[in-house]
Amino acid sequence: MDRCNPKRHVTLSKLPLGLLGLAALGLTACGNRLDTADIEANIHADIERQGRRLTLREVRCPSDVSRQAGAYFRCVGELDPEGTFTINVTQQDDRGNITWEVPNSTVMLNLPTVEDTIQQGLSQAFGKRALVDCGTAIYRVNQPGDRFQCQVVGGLETGSSTVDSVLVRIDPDGNLSWQELQSTATASVPVALGSALPPAATPAQATSVPPSAGPQAAPAVKTTTVPGPTGRVINRPYLPGDND
Question: What is the pTM of this model?
Fold first, then answer.
């Protein structure tokens, strides 16, 4: 698609399956504008490759984005029939290099973010660090009524029992909760993850946003990065006494 000529329009088609949720891309530009058609194609392919059985209908980005280091804009991914989800894009420089991420939403789950939330919950509940692995996929459709298990790598000793995994449930509104699955004891308390999701399922829209209006940084949580059993990097909470 030639975004330099606004009179030309073509329909986006699905691309072949195309490193992780954040990916740097070298992209060409039209004068002082980004080639957002190239951005759309790369993000489309990467999300499908990194997702669990995901086939996107399309990715749409605004066509009038100027090259500017630190500038932030939003693209929209669309699943059929689930709906649209937001893709946050940040320009790393004024030469077209970007990073992007798909946050948790009522349409799409970012599994590394889910892992981080569960790890922090287990750490706070038991005072011990835990490694949680939800599989090799980065993205998964947020399907109401769905459930899936995430492994606690190596188990988590809790005294009389061991937490081997957690069961994640998605309620009818798309909110998540998880429950510890223990090898000996059965008493476990579901912990809501719904705070990581937006309060309302409003349709996502592709927008160009000034750098100052970008996502606000969350309070820093100290973590340690290690490889999980599937080979994907896992971030676990840091606890006093860690030497790594």
Answer: 0.69
Contact between residue 181 and residue 165 where contact means Cβ atoms under 8 Å apart: yes
End-to-end CA distance of the chain: 48
Which two tokens mark 150?
């995430």
Amino acid identity, residue 126? F
Q: What is the distance, to the nearest Å, from the Cα of residue 208 to the centroid of all Cα atoms in its chain?
A: 20
Distance CA 47, CA 79 (A): 11
Q: How many angstroms separate the CA atoms of 75 and 84, rounded?
A: 10
- Evaluate the CA torsion angle 215, 221, 226, 229 in order and state its sign: negative
Instruction: For residue 3, give both structure tokens.
Output: 């975004």
Q: Which of 232, 241, 231 is nearest to 129 (CA)?
A: 241
Give residue for tokens 């058609």.
37
Residue 132 CA to residue 149 CA, distance in Å, equals 10
Both structure tokens of 17:
């399956």
19-29 pLDDT, tens digit each:
333 444 444 44
Kindly give, in sequence order, each residue whose CB lies less than 8 Å from that of residue 219, ignoring residues fewer than 6 positions away.
none
Single out the residue of 3, 60, 50 nearest to residue 23, CA to CA.
Answer: 50
Task: Give the residue with greater pLDDT, 219 vs 142.
Answer: 142
Report the alpha-carbon distance of residue 173 to residue 213 in Å, rounded: 28
**What 8-state DSSP symbol labels residue 195?**
G
Closest by Cα among 129, 132, 142, 131 to 102:
142
What is the Cα Rg of the chain in Å?
Answer: 20
In angstroms, rounded to a whole number, what is the distance separating the alpha carbons of residues 170 and 236? 23
Domain residue limits, the chain:
29-105+200-213, 109-195+222-237
